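User: Please predict structures.

Assistant: First:
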Amino acid sequence: LQSDVTVPFLDSTSHLQTPANMKPHGALLLLCLLHAVWGYDDTTFVAAVYEHAVNWSEPARPPSRQQALELMRGNLDVYRVQTREAKRQGADIIVFPEDGLYGFQTRDNLYPYLETIPDPEQIVWNPCDDPDRFNDTPVQRDLSCMAKDNDIYIVVNFGDKQFCDSSEDSTCPTDGKYQFNTDVVFDNRGTILARYHKQHLFMTEVQFNQPPAVEFTTFQTPFGKFGVFTCFDVLFREPAVALVEDYGVDTILFPTAWMDVLPLFVSVEFHQAWAMGMGVNFLSANTHVLDRRMTGSAIITPSGAVSYYHDMDSSEGMLLVAEIPIKPMKNVVTSTELPIREQDTAFVSDLFDDPFTFVELKSDSDYVSVCHNDLCCSLNYTKSGPSSETYALGAFDDLHTHEGQYYLQICALVKCANSSRDSCGQPIRDAQTIFSHLQLAGNFKFPHVFPEVLTTGLDLAMDEWQYKAGSVVSTSGIRESLLTAALFGRVYERDDGNFRSTNGVEGLSSGLPLIVTLFFVVNYILYA
């Protein structure tokens, strides 16, 4: 037997709907019987995330401390209003975005915004109750009182300065101080509960320093165990995957300043995929800065997004509040060998600066497959739409070296920008083709695979597809026109770049067995 993972239906309050006849003992029985099953216990909590349209400026020279505080107070006023509203709606915890208090600054301009944030593992401190314990910490005091006054946990991204001496610390920056991109957690009494320094700085984050060692930041609450990391961290094993697999967290808190990159790195698309692939709750709060393509926040369970926001037209922020389970059940996915049909029409086109091997979907209904190095991808589909629209199935199995270095294995169905094969993989936002049946699979040998579906208007089509037995499956059809469907695999063990496949792209025509009949037999057994 194989169970399925269904993207949840939403009611008018954006709360997760569970089958009325699913009793706890029944869920346990199914868990014993099935290869993969989603289930929750009957305990929930209310989560909130706020996508913030940050007020910021880029002065030619560093502001004074007073000028920096004035700018941050404007953003803190918004945080205060949204925290109060989140609590009014019953929220237990609220997450604010990366860089939300001061925007994007140079290293010198950033310094006046920073405060020294003590390590809560060494010092227990409630800034609201004891504001004079440390010098020049008014922002921490305001946030602490905000949490205490509203009886709510608050997660805020905020810069931490730590002074150092190069004569004692060989990694000390030349200006004598570390500047860390930092997430700070205040409990509902205002005490600093957790602090996390971002490990994987994006290439433009030269205003910050990388911490000397990876930090695995977790904390326990009455409503579950939480882990914290920031933005670009999500693409790497440490700390992101380790928090789930090694530290057993139930929910990830994710402040981000995420810039959309179509077709595979739209904020809500990728964050939902990561939560589904890892089997955890995921609270994503994005900065809302449209000229940087930054939008997209979500409250996600392993079954998919319960509530999300993505708007490139509005200049306003957005508060999301939803009830989610404390203990999400983990997904177990097994990998099977795929039947591969030789393809003599393969071509190469760039997707996110990686040379994907593609095959074009030439028929309205067909089974196609494509391979790159050790990865083979298959697609069984039925579609209808304008003949002028071109779709292609692509595979990539190699080291990605653009804007970072990490090893990817990806199966991706994409709409091409035009009829030219060179346009397959280029960013597009609109389509007219409907897929009434879709089954995308890959012969992944590594466990970290994240399922993606994105339709026209950058919608997630949440109730129209399933992550079933390691495949993206839609048997009843996706109502909106499809932009992309993908299985995004990460092979963390190969990030150092030392691994090289012996197959190569030329393996596409190296005599792979023609066993299409077997494919349909297996397909019938698993999915009919």
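Second:
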Amino acid sequence: IRLIIPIIFFVSLFYMIFLIESNVNKTNLNRRVNSRRWTDSSNVQKWNYIATTGKTTFANGKAFELTEQETQEMNKRRDAIREAFLHSWDNYEKFAWGFDELKPISKKGTDWLALALTISDSLDTLLIMDLKEEYEKALDYMLNFNFNLNRDISVFETTIRVLGGFAAAHSLTGDERILMKAKDLVYRMLPAFRTTPTGIPLANVNLQTGRCSAPNWLGLTATLAEVGTIQMEFLYFAHHLNDSSIAEGPLKVYEHISRMSKFSSKLYPISLNTKTGNWGNQMRVTLGALGDSFYEYLLKTWILSGKKINYLRKMYDSAAEAIVQHLLLKTSPSKLTYIAELVSPQLPARYLHKMDHLACFAGGMFALGAYTLSEDIGLEKDLPIDNVQTYKDVMMQAGADITNFCWLTYNRSQTGIAPEITIIDRNLVDFGASPRSKYYVLRPETVESLFIMYRLTGDKKYQEWGWRIFQSINKYCRVENGYTGLRDVTNDKQIIYDDSQQSFFLAETLKYLYLLFSPPNLISLDEFVFNTEAHPMRILKN
């Protein structure tokens, strides 16, 4: 009895504490959600959009004018970024021509898809930077590339890098040879959408036989980002090749997802079962790896279609509202806005307090979503509030806050370069680098958001932040024979290289930086939309 009475007492005590804590958590959750009700915009500034048109003026009529000194400084910075690209390109050409990527320390090439990714990924960057000789050589190589390959390639990576590169080069030049080369690759990839009973593609396709497969770690599972980040490219070529069947398979994936069971958070888990068409076993919700670009492509495929496929815009707005309500949290003590992850899409929320560098694209996504929504496209009734302008301001504020957080992950780092994953912990001042993910692989997502925020606001702080990021990359990642990632961005005393010059460094990071210091009519956001690999496609008409 002497033993039983204390046990009963402590069990009762712990149960009471649990009930109190549960009520507190529920109350805090309700407060958090209620504080973000869409009718409450007291903490949201009014945004004035000055996005570019095809002219050298901003959309509100404000002229793009610089003093002579400002012009010289902007040209100087753009030339420095162009030189960095040439340093990367020349060494790739010297040591790795025809390979996917350069290993600048080892001075040799390396393959993982064996599709000459650096060449296809760089076509439009070469055009934008006016590197004509280099472009002609690169284009000639890709036009003569043999896609009749008896091996498996990634549907996702090949779509965004190779087809995306072709689409951008075609958009910028109108060269029919590019269209015909893309046609060969497109038709070799279409079996990916005809293999499973659901139409959800497996990860890989054999370009010669059409046989589809998936790596062992995936099995019958497909990831949300991979199956939801292929629609822009196939839609582009369906239009220009006048063959709607090219886009049918990829767009049916969106149609299928739109009909799937919904969760209380209105967000999407990262995995789907390709056989049953149901959600997979991985229920985490993230704007980082495996989830990220699905949300981006809902918006951008709608933009690319000339704002015609409206159910995609509705899916995007619903998800964007849910992200702002449930994923945007504040650090302590500075109350910086970051994007958390959810253990499950069902509420009440259980959080993972981490943010991938990959998720930093979302600042630009929110801003672009706000800018492209207007009252004349008939979507007001589907928004979470009746006032379109208030909704746009909330989204623009979210974009600005996320971009600010991502910039600070660079600015507070010892090297001035952000880690792969940032963790938010009560024992840290706001945030810190994940001990297991302190590396940097030349990623572009933060400078992508800086570029879009600058184009939409004209605020020169985004240029200054971009320049400081470029200076840090130049200081720590530049080596004799190219650029390389870093193993640990938190240690500026002992720099360890990863010996990898990623193709997206030339396709995305340097391109966005170059455009950040270019006149606003160079790749206007009113005429082009970028795919997730920074390949600009001209918005479709008719």
